[in-house]
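2 proteins. here.
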Amino acid sequence: MIVSAKKRIIDLLIKSGGEGVLQSEIPRKLDLSKSTVSEILSDLENEGIVVREKAAGKSYRVWFFKFAPKPIEGVIRIGVLRASEYPHALMAAEKLEDVKVCVEVFDDAQELTKTLSMSQLDVGFSPFITQTLFALLLKSIKIHCIAAYNGSGVALKKSLEKSRAFATSELSAMESNLKLFLEQSGFNLTELTFKYFSSPEDMIEKFAGCEVDALAIWEPYFTALRSKYKCIEFREVIGDFPCCSLASNIQFYKRNKSILKDYLDGLKSSVEEIEERKDYAAELVAKKMGFDEKLVMKSFDSYIFSASLSRDDFEYLEKYGLKLTKESMKNILGDKI
């Protein structure tokens, strides 16, 4: 009975996601005694599987550890986008010792960055422009390094000159680079239509169905589209650009600096290993993201992998119309750990 009850409690907490459940509601929801629920939750809490926090009076709210809105001792929750940009992120996670690692894959950059800012992720990889805006507005994350440069472009159904409707993701490197690319290609943006999608699969479906003339998309989807459509890499027109960056939630940044330091060190060493361990790097990404391994391997050629951050990266944001002061940069940057 205890084993069955434990699984039912875990399933309930997983289903509740970021909202969690009041401990007092669990006995009623699952038809269990208060003592059984209390005993199981204590065990799960000791195992690091659940997190409890006082809600009001004597009430406690309970979360499955992946969704808890605060850092957890001995745990690092890493968010990545469904892309081939993160071999070093996955390799670095493998190097962590005596730490429980949870890697979650997102399709939507805004959702990942929002989840990170709400402390339901400890560190996250998402577009540099997106993280910078969240850091400035919410002051809840610290940016540590650029994860990669380039790795995206435009796929076309007709010539670029005749294209008028473009698909992209909103508030992202895709949108920013697409508009910069089009401006430098001589287009007036006010004469174009932009349609926004949170899922790359949905974007590709609408593109294939002729609802848009072109789309801005990242790897390895971009490489996959090359065999059927005319494709132009952004860097051919706008030069090398910072794509995704690594940021930490400020609570995790303050409480778990040793874990963060180990992860950042692992990220740096993994960048140096990608070329010599390319097969293994591609295997890791393919397995985690659900991509074809050969496609991932080929897409690596589009990137310059990184684990550093410079003033030039912030200055690049000026091309998107975002000019930061020295004070702003100082406030959103993580200290050297």
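next one coming up
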Amino acid sequence: MSTPRSGEVRCLNRLGFHTVRYTDWGDPANPRVLLCLHGLTRVGSDFARLADALSDCYRVVCPDVAGRGRSDWLPDPKLYGLPQYSFDMTSLIARTGADRVDLLGTSMGGLIGLSLAGQPNAPIGRLILNDIGPRMDLQALERIAEYVGRIERFDSLEQATAYVRSIAGGFGLRTDQQWRELTESVLRRDGSQWIFHYDPGIAVNLADTSAQSNALAEAKLWELYDAARGPVLVVRGAESDLLSRATAAEMAQRGPRAQVVEVPGVGHAPMFFDADQIAIVRRFLLAS
């Protein structure tokens, strides 16, 4: 088992600096680096099992995106969006010292990956998009917007775990221990209770979700996807309500012509807790 290390990098926003904190697995001198980016309300430790499993061949860097976990909250909630996240990850890539990194992004993390990989001269090699693509189902986005930013309080870890299972059943975890592990990583103490460890302000920009805004975002994301130059893998939860099978199929036919793998019995989104899901990632990253 690899021993993880903690690190941090100072990043610039239009109102000053903030700190993004990350955890780092594997040989710090390994030039082969994998950057793992989590979903909207999640944290970098979601990838702990995957990172440990890949640490024999990769240095794996897993940040808490600004506003989540151990990273600083941004001074203006309107800053929470792909431009700021992409700038932050550029600073983190520079901190690794690698000329090029491979990137795995779950949901929001995948959109950050697209925002980087679609730029000219992008320092992104292999790209894994976990249950996300340029076209996202509007009803699924509205479902997510319903609970993000609500300040929920829990009297016990058991109560919090039950709530997370109710809103994130699509993760498809197999054991009570996995659900507890997933829940503990996104909680913090507030007096005698537990609350989620993210800035409720991350929901501000979600309030603008509409058919029109979704269509505009889709057009830009397809443009970025078509411009990506490295190999791309799309991992789709077979029961996903966010990434349709038709969209995944279109991604296989245009732009970088992604490989597509479906994970049975999972919705939005696979979490790479299990050996069979980890094996999907390993095969793609180590393919010649």
